[in-house]
Amino acid sequence: MEEPKIKQKRGKLSLVATPIGNLADLSERQRDTLAAADLVAAEDTRHSGLLLAHLGLKKPLLSYYKHNEAGREEELLAKLAAGENIALISDAGTPGICDPGSSILLAAAQAGFEVDAIPGPCAAIQALVLSGLPTERFAFEGFLPRGKVKLEFLQKLAAEERTLVFYEAPHRLRETMQMLEEVFGGGRRMAVCRELTKKFQEVQRGTVAELAAVWQEREPRGEYVLVLEGCDEACHRPEVGEEQLKAELKRLLDGGMKHKAAAREIAARYSLPVSRVYALGLVLKRE
Ligand code: SAM
């Protein structure tokens, strides 16, 4: 007689988005998925313990973050095989977006387990929508690389036509704003979005030059998303000649404007790097 096949109970992996600053953004589905989980894998177990406590839940927590995610894979797959339902959360927002989550989701799916992503806040999308810039096509660039390669990385995006979205840390904001002005020209529109969904949410809309000047004066604090207009027709337009630039610069300098301010104004007018126009001013002074 043929032996009856025992259908093994198998667990499910759910990537659960969580609020990026406002606990009222928690959804019923997020709550239900966390409540149904046998285990919660979390970036920072202490931080996530507080979120679970807010929901009145007490769950076994397993730390799962960038530097241990590869090592945890086997363990999590074994738990799924044992029939455990796992909810994976990051410190804030959507797991997998500049946070761990994608690799274990793929590994679990490929191993035949059921996987799902429970939607919720994502700082990039929140900022994009609030920026007022075109949303039809956009490119999310995450965090910019650090050090020397950062400038090169931005230069490669100079002709990108889609709206660009970057995450940035407060201690790098000033340097990044200066580089944006350098590479994309001061005239491009952008939005600096700060502390989204939180009590002190702020969205500043203006040109790169205007907002770079604001943040040279103000101490950057909190969390930031930068949204930058893509390269439009004007940005693709053939370059204005050096003689014309010098003539216009000279007019401003003769009118009493300071060298740097004049360079900024001309650069914004033609969407040029400030440094290039500033250098022309030095040439003018020598002539
Ligand atoms: N997974 C998250 C998401 O879905 O947005 C992103 C995590 S990433 C490690 C953290 C970065 O996201 C921060 O440095 C900041 O650039 C951005 N961010 C997160 N929360 C934010 C908020 N409330 N306001 C502005 N930016 C935020």
From TrEMBL:
Domain Tetrapyrrole methylase, chain residue ranges per copy: 12-212
Database matches in Gene3D superfamilies: Cobalt-precorrin-4 Transmethylase, Domain 1 (3.40.1010.10), Methyltransferase, Cobalt-precorrin-4 Transmethylase, Domain 2 (3.30.950.10)
Compartments where found: Cytoplasm
EC number: 2.1.1.198
Alphabetized GO MF terms: rRNA (cytosine-2'-O-)-methyltransferase activity
Main localization, broad class: cytoplasm
EC category: transferase
Alphabetical keyword list: Cytoplasm, Methyltransferase, rRNA processing, S-adenosyl-L-methionine, Transferase
Catalysed reactions listed for this entry: cytidine(1402) in 16S rRNA + S-adenosyl-L-methionine = 2'-O-methylcytidine(1402) in 16S rRNA + S-adenosyl-L-homocysteine + H(+)
InterPro entries assigned: 4pyrrol_Mease (IPR000878), 4pyrrol_Methylase_sf (IPR035996), 4pyrrole_Mease_sub1 (IPR014777), 4pyrrole_Mease_sub2 (IPR014776), rRNA_ssu_MeTfrase_I (IPR008189), SAM_MeTrfase_RsmI_CS (IPR018063)
Statement: the UniProt record of this protein carries the keyword Iron: no
UniProt superkingdom: Bacteria
CC per GO annotation: cytoplasm
Purpose: Catalyzes the 2'-O-methylation of the ribose of cytidine 1402 (C1402) in 16S rRNA.
HAMAP family: 16SrRNA_methyltr_I
Family label: Belongs to the methyltransferase superfamily. RsmI family.
Protein name: Ribosomal RNA small subunit methyltransferase I
Natural source organism: Candidatus Avidehalobacter gallistercoris
Lineage: Bacteria, Bacillati, Bacillota, Clostridia, Eubacteriales
Primary gene name: rsmI
